[in-house]
Amino acid sequence: MVPQLPDAQRRAATGPRLRLALAALGLVIVTLPVRSQTQQENPPPAASNPANAAQVRAQQNAAAAAAQLRAQQNAAAAAAQLRAQQNAAAAAAQLRAQQNAAQGAAQLRAQQNAAAAAAQLRAQQNAAAAQRRTPPTAPAAPGNTHNPASDLHVASLDNGRAGASLVQSRNFLGHPGPPGSTETRSASGKIVRTAADGTVIDVRNPRNGMTIHHGLDGSRRILVEQPDHSRIYATTRGLPYVQHPFVFRGRALNHRTYPVGGQLVHLFYRPYSFGGTTLDVYAPTRYYDAQFYQQASSPFPAPQAYRWPYANNSTPWYGYYKGYFTPEPTYTSPVSWLTDFVLGASLAVAYATERPTAPPPPASATPAVTPEVKQMLNDEVGRQLKQESVEAQQNAANRDLPPGAGGVVQELGDGQAHVFVVSSDLDLVDPTGRRCMISEGDVVQVVSAPRADTSTADAVVMASKGGEECGRAAQVQIAVADLQEMQNHMRETIDLGIASSDAGKKAPTATPAFAAAAPPPDPNTAREIEQQQQIAAAADS
Q1: pTM of the predicted model, to two decimals?
Q2: Order of strands, edge to edge, in the sheet holding 443-446?
Q3: Mean pLDDT to the nearest integer, 514-520
Q4: Which residues touch 341 (CB under 8 Å, ≥6 apart)?
């Protein structure tokens, strides 16, 4: 429905706007010639003799006939225009009907797939429960394989914990090893963790604070904790950064510098402690007023259509991942639009940081990110918007947040299940004891509160891309520090989505005092990252 304009605006809109609309429909406008103002104000004098009078009458009759002909032509053009508009409206109605039918069919298939998966899950849980009630006749040998015939890996919990056979470690806190993994300490104090087959998984050097992780996909991730509480994170896949502490109003904060596309991006975090580790919760540098957050969390009066440029222009990353994720054609609220923004941005970054070499996820009628998963993400995005609104009110009152406020430990302590978009590649262990991965753009649901003794929480994989990745419904343990980074990633991307929207560009914002007083980005970021990569390469050689 076209919105109604006031009369003055409607008159002003007639002309160029109408011509553009008709041109879009493929119609051609013919402009008829008109007399000049001089001709209208100075008509030729009438003749005085009969012959001239007859000639004038003949001319008048001819003019009247021409005017009648023009009127008939105009009427015919108007009728043709009306028929074209009616045909266009009918075609649009037919297209909407087809889209609605296709959407309904896709939703039905998704519901059928979800019901089948739920039935399979219940069957496997019942079988696992029966197996636990019947003690085995002989102890089973630990294995590192899985059944390729089944894509659905479901963990049976042992006293509410997933992966009871995992090897917990105080040296690699939050990252338990697979069954059969061992740790050895060299004479120099270096700690090496190897898998049951002898593959090196982790190397930690307490002397320089460096931990090197060898990923299942062949990547190498380096984390260096320095004595002044600075941190350097370098990776062969993903976004590296350098983090330095600073103090504002007697409170510790951290600022990270990311080298992205030849530029330095600066973000801020508030550190807090949990289970023997230091976590960093995202601290926004821009807040909106309460009314803005209320509108962002409210539904639209009617579904709003939106065409994502990447879906219309065959963007390479979307061409690769479209069998995994498909954006919605319409949105019922800003929150639902932000959900697709977070997913799309995550997959675009994953593709840009290192182009995948594996075959793309198979295209199917139902993408891996199902409507049910998106609804869970909608709820999570709404909760994070609400948390940012609370922080905005605190900032407006010039009050500092306590350590850990709004962080993932506080969020997971509310007794509800929470869903996060994965922010980086992580190596985990599935219920069969097999090493598997999750990568940026995957979706996990955390189903337990964080545990201080292991610095982990139980989670279920809701959507993954296949291959070496953990199967859907696999229950895994994830480090609380990694979950905090997922929450940070989602809040950072939500802020980016808001700022890029028309409403976000126009709305007034407030800058927290710490952001105005913060130090500049670290200009030595690239050099520091390269230096640690060289040290890690020498340590591995």
Answers
A1: 0.71
A2: 418-421, 443-446, 456-463, 475-479
A3: 94
A4: 493, 494, 496, 497
